[in-house]
Amino acid sequence: MAEQPPAERTPVALSLPIAGRPVERADAARNRRKILVAAAGIVSRAGITALSLDEVARVAGVGVGTVYRRFGDRAGLIFALLDEEERQFQSAFMQGPPPLGPGGPPAERVRAFLHALVDRVEAQRELLVAAETSSPTARFTSGPYTIYHIHLVTLLGLARPGVDAHFVAAALLAPLSATFLTFQRRERGFAVDAIKAGLDDLLGLGL
């Protein structure tokens, strides 16, 4: 059955907060948990292609409108499934030990961040591919991408004053999309270490 959003749908941004979640009502928190458990179960049993908002609502025992209001669309639900690992990753580069976290030279932190992001994407590539390809701009309007870009812009501005940090940050993030990494891993046969070495070569051209 094709997914049909309710007549009055409030768009939900594809975002993950940096700090803790806002306080939810108890019933809203229960529904969120039921929906996420149902979605994770579907992905575990049948793969990401089986994930639809209608099926999630059926398994969770809630109305499909509840799923739409809580997550906005399929991509929003997928990003929510990625939430815990994403929070751990953000905590590591914002608050963890150097060189990934604060305290190291900016150029070293850029390298550590890119290497860590390769591992982050590799760990949940299937879900990330589904999220990134849900719409032409899904990756770039997501909360994680926005945070990554801001983080790199800040570090690049410190490492190379005068560089167009916004453009360079976007250029460095481009080969780290889940779709591109999947192509490199499956079609080109690149190992994770080879991808990281390629990023080091790229950084060596300008940092």
UniProtKB/TrEMBL annotation:
InterPro entries, A to Z: Homeodomain-like_sf (IPR009057), HTH-type_TetR-like_transc_reg (IPR050109), HTH_TetR (IPR001647), Tet_transcr_reg_TetR-rel_C_sf (IPR036271)
PROSITE patterns: HTH_TETR_2 (PS50977)
Gene3D superfamilies the UniProt entry points to: Tetracycline Repressor, domain 2
Entry annotated with the keyword DNA-binding: yes
Residues covered by the HTH tetR-type domain: 29-89
Pfam family membership, one: TetR_N
Keyword terms of this UniProt record: DNA-binding
Annotated region of DNA binding: 52-71
Single GO MF annotation: DNA-binding transcription factor activity
Protein name: TetR family transcriptional regulator
Organism: Micromonospora palomenae
